[in-house]
């Protein structure tokens, strides 16, 4: 029984068997004709310049806004609070260089 399974798997792995089991010719290749959307040369429409200006202008505004946004992280707040508490206690936060 085991020999029969090995013989069958060896028979199925032959390249000629794979060729016989293959499909037909397939679909014909549709070669490109050089036209995109039935236009030989690209024609820019009226709304495209406004869209480009709006999109890239919006990206620029968001980039500037993110660059100049205030730092509201927890570590910045905690550092400011710790400096304030140390200043109230009279402890200097700057270390003096010892010679």
Automatic annotation (TrEMBL):
- Cite the residue spans of the region called Disordered: 1-33
Gene Ontology cellular-component terms listed: mitochondrial inner membrane
Q: Which regions are flagged for Low complexity bias? A: 1-14
- The record lists the membrane-crossing segments as 50-68
Entry's localization field: Mitochondrion inner membrane
Name the predominant localization: mitochondrion
Q: Which InterPro entries match?
A: NADH_UbQ_OxRdtase_ESSS_su
* Keywords linked to the UniProt accession: Electron transport, Membrane, Mitochondrion, Mitochondrion inner membrane, Respiratory chain, Transit peptide, Transmembrane, Transmembrane helix, Transport
What topology does the record note for this protein and the membrane? Answer: Single-pass membrane protein
**What do we know about how this protein assembles, alone or with others?**
Complex I is composed of 45 different subunits. Interacts with BCAP31.
Q: Which family does it belong to?
A: Belongs to the complex I NDUFB11 subunit family.
Protein name, UniProt field: NADH dehydrogenase [ubiquinone] 1 beta subcomplex subunit 11, mitochondrial
